[in-house]
Amino acid sequence: MSTRKKLHEKYHSNTKLQRKIIKDNNFTYRLLISVINRYLKKSNNKILDIGCGAGTLSFYLASKGNNVLGIDISSKAVKACIASKKELGLKNVDFKQLDFHSKLASKKFDVVIFTEVIEHLEDDKKALKAIHNMLETKGIMVLSTPSNTAPLHRLGITKKFDEEVGHLRRYSLEKIEKMVNKSGFEIIEIQKTEGILRNFLFVNPIAGKLIRFFKFFISDIVTFADNATIPLFGYSNIIIIAKKA
Question: Which is higher by pLDDT, 48 or 12?
């Protein structure tokens, strides 16, 4: 078992079943959802969710009428996803435990979700080229990754977190933009997101326990406050929407 797989199996050792579909203002996923929904103008898209984890986003996208395949390197994560699928009663979502680089070369998708994954991979360029090959003509890739200019990263506060979750690197906007373009994509949108407040909640294990309580208006208030910090201190995450050229 590779070091990366061991790390992810450990990370997902306590992954819980998903018993309901998240809403658009879910604190963890609301930034991604707001971007993704602008490009999914129709249902019945064929979607690949790479590094699906507990399947939260996969289930959300399936609930909108899309056909979703979620994959993850962790067998524990995939087992939890399969159990959650039965709990939720969704038929248009499947899960497989595999590394997408070589096992999905012949399949084609309308949309590939590639969020918070590329920073874990040894060969990031190969991954982008593989995704390009998997997409239908004019298919869309949604990529997100931590920024190396994040305020907490510049202060050295994210070092332990990055090691624990298996981040091999962080990207500057210029570098990731150049890599995506060189892989045959046309970038159609870039968002510099996640202020210092939101980022702290995700990288600090004690503060992170509060996230589960951010329901409805609390999520809106914290998001509003976090957005206000970006012009002052900078952003922590990069979201790129790219079309297969």
Answer: 48
Residue with token string 């206000």: 228
**What is the Cα–Cα distance from 119 to 147, expressed in whole angstroms?**
10
pLDDT tens digits for range 189-225 = 999 999 999 999 999 887 777 776 666 678 888 899 9
Q: Give tens-digit pLDDT for 45-97.
A: 999 999 999 999 999 999 999 999 999 999 999 999 999 999 999 999 999 99
How sure is the predictor about 154, in pLDDT bands with cuts at 50, 70 and 90? very high
How does strand 135-146 pair with strand 109-115? Answer: parallel
Of 189, 167, 180, 171, the C-alpha closest to 241 is 189
Furthest C-alpha separation in the chain? 46
Judge contact between 191 and 144, C-beta under 8 A: no
DSSP secondary structure, the chain, as one string:
--HHHHHHHHHTTTPPPP-SPPPTT-TTTHHHHHHHHHH--SS--EEEEET-TTSHHHHHHHHTT-EEEEEES-HHHHHHHHHHHHHHT-SSEEEEES-HHHHTTT--EEEEEEES-GGG-S-HHHHHHHHHHHEEEEEEEEEEEEBTT-HHHHTTTTHHHHHHHT----B-HHHHHHHHHHTTEEEEEEEEE--HHHHHHHH-HHHHTTGGG--THHHHHHHHHHHHHHHHH--SEEEEEEEE-
Q: Give 48's strand partners.
A: 69, 112
